[in-house]
Amino acid sequence: MIEPQTKTALSSAFPSITWSEFRADARAVVPCDEIYAVLRFLRDDLGFDLLVDMTCVDYLSYRGAEDRFGLVYLLCATESNERITVRTFVNEPLLSVPSVVPLWAGANWMEREVWDMFGIRFEGHPDLRRILMPDEFTAFPLRKDYPLQGRGERHNFSVLYRAES
Q1: Which of 20, 121, 158, 162 could form a disulfide with 96 if both were Cys (CB 3.0 to 4.6 A apart)?
Q2: How far apart are CA 136 and CA 153, in angstroms?
Q3: How far are the Cα atoms of 26, 46, 107 from residue 1, in angstroms, in the given order?
Q4: According to the model, what pLDDT value does residue 158 have?
Q5: Alpha-carbon span 121 to 40, nearest angstrom
């Protein structure tokens, strides 16, 4: 839950934010070009000192969706126990947002996972490389246009899963 004064402060500083609520949880939708500034304001000025999680949603073929990918940041202010969900949207061919690793060091692996699974690039990330898939893998398997049976990529995973004799 977010306090009314927090919502008012954020809306005053960034009038382009749109809001929705679900079961008393506030969700802010931020234009992509303002996402870093909004997240920095939340951390520095409003006390949201914990990045709880970060993920991505592919809205391909989603009824009513106007954007392809939605990045989701879940934040918490540990002093007040306020929580907020911040979303921004990116579309092809410009699948890029600023890295928030300078704000929360824990974003490092979260951003790598989103890069690895969805192909969203995080500008300024200190070590943007695959974290789940092999380096030679060229696709992004959590995209909705990725075939369920794969694209015929062949990798020798038996080396990784070889049972000890």
Answers
A1: 121
A2: 10
A3: 7, 14, 22
A4: 47
A5: 19
The pLDDT tens digits of the residues spanning 42-69 come to 999 999 999 999 999 999 989 999 999 9
Count of residues in the chain: 165
Tell me how many helices (H) and strands (E) the chain has: 4, 7
From CA 22, how far away is CA 155, in angstroms rounded? 43
Question: Whole-structure pTM over 0.85, yes or no?
Answer: yes
Angle at 88 between CA 132 and CA 35, to 5 degrees: 100
Q: Which value, in Å, is the radius of gyration of the alpha carbons in the chain? A: 18
Go through the domains of the chain in sequence order and give each one's CATH number.
4-151 (3.30.460.80)
Cα–Cα distance for residue pair 98/107, rounded to 1 Å: 12
